[in-house]
């Protein structure tokens, strides 16, 4: 019985002491059952710190313009005014615009947070949960979404600005492979590299060149082909290998969309131009890796005691660069073979979509069953005092 009791204590929410503890606070390690208990005043120090960090991150984000930050703060201000009839704030609070007057929205993030009222901080939390904050930031449109029919409607300069330039000096594959033919698995390895590429582009919302070192290292680590020299025997394996490296921090929906991005790049902008997007993507991968390699070399050169991690990273990037150069040469001569992987990639995309749909249906079914199992409040007493 003692063991059972201890197990129940571990599984019970430490805030309400009623429901099972489904989550653990990363700050204090306390077990809690849901958002209501997480936000309870008993746990106020941790939840307040969490929401503050979210606000700091949103305001510190260099990808968000000052105008977009101002829009977010104006939404908080409008909410406060709408609620003023129901619950008045302190007379010292004043309008949000007055409290933030003179502050730099790009740099004074700590001061901005401290000048928000409790209601505004709570509203920020609500906006974060329901996705309104993401609506304030313009989502990047990938260059591979540029349709052929749209290309005719825009200027040449706009096309060049949107699609990465293909490098001029591409290795001749016939000189690299003088005694053998290219392996049939190269097409799958290219798929693996492309998946890691679209992941990085999406992750940084198109601003990967603002932080080339971090973006390049994430790209290499996201591709077993580039980081470990793995060989993929099928397009499905190429996708799954990359997913294994990045799925722990991304939603299933996000990963499924990445598969579709790879399909679009391989398919190209139109008939007769199937290789344009593949060559452009591989060229940008190469340029990004070279930029990171150059930065690492510079760091090692000026450092009085270069770290082993820096040396290993430099070597890793060097090998990855050579592989991408090889894939560019292969794509230039044999790239049309990539079209043969499209049917399997579409099947993989459909399979993942069905898995997600099935998981969502099971989740909804469980939630409905749990709701039905809970006793309904019919107005009658569940416990009566004995007289």
Automatic annotation (TrEMBL):
The keyword Isomerase does not apply. InterPro entries: Znf_HIT, ZNHIT2. PROSITE patterns: ZF_HIT. One of its GO terms (molecular function) is zinc ion binding. It comes from the Eukaryota. Pfam families: zf-HIT. CDD domains: zf-HIT_ZNHIT2-3 (cd23024). Residues 13-46 form the HIT-type domain. Residues 80-99 are annotated as: Disordered. Keywords: Metal-binding, Zinc, Zinc-finger. Residues 82-95 have a biased composition (Acidic residues). This is Zinc finger HIT domain-containing protein 2-like.
């Amino acid at each position: 019985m003692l063991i059972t009791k201890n197990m129940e204590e571990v599984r019970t929410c430490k805030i309400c002491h009623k429901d099972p503890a489904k989550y653990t606070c990363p700050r204090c390690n306390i077990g809690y059952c849901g958002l209501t208990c997480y936000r309870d005043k008993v746990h106020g120090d941790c939840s307040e710190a969490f929401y503050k960090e979210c606000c700091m991150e949103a305001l510190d984000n260099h990808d968000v313009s000052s105008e977009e930050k101002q829009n977010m703060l104006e939404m908080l201000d409008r909410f406060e005014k709408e609620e003023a009839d129901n619950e008045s704030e302190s007379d010292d609070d004043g309008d949000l615009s007055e409290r933030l007057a003179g502050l730099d929205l790009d740099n004074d993030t700590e001061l901005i947070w401290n000048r928000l009222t409790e209601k505004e901080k709570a509203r920020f939390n609500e906006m974060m949960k329901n996705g309104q904050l993401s609506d304030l930031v313009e989502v990047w449109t990938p260059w591979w979404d540029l349709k052929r029919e749209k290309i005719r409607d825009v200027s040449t300069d706009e096309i060049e600005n949107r699609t990465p330039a293909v490098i001029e000096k591409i290795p001749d594959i016939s000189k690299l492979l003088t005694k053998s033919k290219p392996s049939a698995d190269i097409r799958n390895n290219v798929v693996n590299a492309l998946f890691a590429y679209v992941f990085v582009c999406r992750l940084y919302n198109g601003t990967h060149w603002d932080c080339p070192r971090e973006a390049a290292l994430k790209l290499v680590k996201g591709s077993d082909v580039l980081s470990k020299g793995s060989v993929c025997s099928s397009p499905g394996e190429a996708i799954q290998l990359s997913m294994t490296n990045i799925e722990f921090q991304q939603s299933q929906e996000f990963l499924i969309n990445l598969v579709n991005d790879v399909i679009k790049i391989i398919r190209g902008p139109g008939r007769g131009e199937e290789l344009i997007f593949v060559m452009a993507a591989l060229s940008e991968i190469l340029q990004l890796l070279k930029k990171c390699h150059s930065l690492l070399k510079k760091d090692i050169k000026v450092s009085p005691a270069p770290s082993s991690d820096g040396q290993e990273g430099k070597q890793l990037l060097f090998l990855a660069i050579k592989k991408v150069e090889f894939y560019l040469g292969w794509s230039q001569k044999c790239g049309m073979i990539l079209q043969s992987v499209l049917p399997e990639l579409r099947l993989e995309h459909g399979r993942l979509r069905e898995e997600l749909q099935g998981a969502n249906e099971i989740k909804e079914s469980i939630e409905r069953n749990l709701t039905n199992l809970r006793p309904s409040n019919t107005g009658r007493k569940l416990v009566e005092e004995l007289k």
